[in-house]
Amino acid sequence: MLTLVVLISGSGSNLRAILEASSRPDTPVTVVAVGADNEADGLAHAEEFGVPFFIVDPKAFASRDEWGEELLNQIQVWNADLVVSAGFMRILPAGVVSALTPNLINTHPALLPLYPGAYAVRDALAAGATETGATVHIIDEGVDTGPVIRQTTVVVEAGDTESTLHERIKTVERDMLVATIRDIATGQISLKELS
């Protein structure tokens, strides 16, 4: 059984997909805790599924590194096999990354290495891309630069707005993230080999 800590910042749609999948027998995964950087709406999913959660708010710390140290402490309490950044909208400090990688993965709403950063969907539209997609990757010390685990393409449709395109990407992203975690749990993907 693969144990997970899932990190979120917002509505937690990826978290919910993971929690729902973990209740099915074909997904040998248990979410042992959920972490957030604010009072995120998505923490309601953790409560609904009876999963403990913690909040480490950067505003409560004098420096980014101090925040990172406390975040790492909270993650390590759970001794999880894998940490999943699922809509966690902060760049993790180097100390957190080095302590957890390669067992630290992220989803990104673009086909990396194209359109890294917080505005991937907007950037794809601004570039006139005819397709974009979603990526699951190992987090390294760069911004969306870690080894790619899996990608899925999404066609940009005429008249797409940032919102409509992002909603279609999120649907693909959720399914791909769950499939990736399942493959890690069953040994079909080795993060050590990819890193």
Walk me through the structure.
- This protein is an alpha/beta fold.
- It has a single domain, classed as Formyl transferase, N-terminal domain (Rossmann fold, 3-Layer(aba) Sandwich), CATH 3.40.50.170.
- The chain is built from 7 helices and 7 strands; from the N terminus they run βαβαβαβαβαββαα.
- The protein has a 7-stranded mixed β-sheet, sandwiched between helices.
- Helix 1 runs parallel beside helix 6.
- The longest helix has 24 residues.
- The chain is globular, with a radius of gyration of 16 Å.
- The two termini are 22 Å apart.
- Its EC number is 2.1.2.2.
In short:
(6R)-10-formyltetrahydrofolate binds at residues 64, 89-92, 106. By secondary structure, the protein is α/β, with parallel strands linked by helices.
Task: Name the descriptors.
195 residues; alpha/beta; Rossmann fold; 7 helices; 7 strands
CATH class: Alpha Beta
User: Which strand order spans the largest sheet, edge to edge or round the barrel?
Assistant: 3-2-1-4-5-6-7
Helix content: 25-40%
| Total number of distinct structural domains | 1
Which segments are poorly predicted (pLDDT under 50) over 5 or more consecutive residues? none
Rg from Cα: 16 Å
Instruction: Label the overall shape.
Output: globular
Order of helices and strands: EHEHEHEHEHEEHH
Q: Can you count the beta strands?
A: 7
CATH superfamily: Formyl transferase, N-terminal domain
CATH level 3 topology: Rossmann fold
Number of helices: 7
Q: Return the average pLDDT rounded to an integer.
A: 96
How large is the share of residues in beta strands? 15-25%
Pfam families: Formyl_trans_N
Family: Belongs to the GART family.
Function: Catalyzes the transfer of a formyl group from 10-formyltetrahydrofolate to 5-phospho-ribosyl-glycinamide (GAR), producing 5-phospho-ribosyl-N-formylglycinamide (FGAR) and tetrahydrofolate.
Pathway: Purine metabolism; IMP biosynthesis via de novo pathway; N(2)-formyl-N(1)-(5-phospho-D-ribosyl)glycinamide from N(1)-(5-phospho-D-ribosyl)glycinamide (10-formyl THF route): step 1/1
